Amino acid sequence: MLELRDITKSFPQQRVLEGISLTVGDGESVAIMGPSGSGKSTLLHCMSGVLVPDHGEVLFDGQDVSAMSDAERSRLRLEHFGFIFQDGQLLPELTATENVALPQIMRGVPRSQAHDEAIDMLTRLGLGAYVDRYPGQLSGGQGQRVAIARALAGPPSVVFADEPTAALGVQETAQVENIIRTLKAAGEPLILISHNMRQVFDLVDRIVVFRRGRIVANLRKEET
Questions:
Q1: Region class of 27: left (phi > 0), else alpha (psi between -120 and 50), else beta
Q2: pTM of the predicted model, to two decimals?
Q3: pLDDT in tens, the chain (224 residues)
Q4: Fewer CB in 10 Å around end: N or C, the chain?
């Protein structure tokens, strides 16, 4: 489904990715692990078409994402990718329902249908009583579950999660991890960025260890 071929990426005075090659299969969940500053988020951004590598190719279902225009990559992200960030990145002026429905509306789904589907997804994630709340009226864990609901709208071909529990407490982290386990059990393709192997060990099929812009280990769980 998703393949990286010898990609490199540099920023001014800093080489961040050093010839990365990686394949993620259909329905596979993968954790990319490494310390802060190792290039994990840059790798995720290249995989998802947010950034274009300096060299190499990023292929999604055989399409060369790195050769697409900005508009084509934006459309690809909208139609095929879901994103969960550390802080949720919800729009504060929109309710939970409106935040979740927005990507669907941008894809051309009628507003009433998008809102109905958003409410259904929020209810499935235990937020049925909060569908009309604004982000400022939600706890951190509730807000992150809204972000997960938004990421799953569509549904996406791949979900990218960048340290999705980093800003949460213990109880809220457990709630989000349970949702991720459900996604894995359902065969939802997932690429998860983390620095904590113990935390993500049972959330994924494979663990890719990252150091200083290079992959230093690529292990299925039975090999760890």
A1: left
A2: 0.88
A3: 899 999 999 998 888 999 999 999 988 999 999 888 888 989 999 999 999 999 999 999 999 998 999 999 999 999 999 998 877 789 999 999 999 999 999 999 999 999 999 999 999 888 999 999 999 999 988 999 999 999 988 888 999 998 888 878 888 888 888 888 888 888 888 999 987 777 777 888 899 998 889 999 888 766 55
A4: C
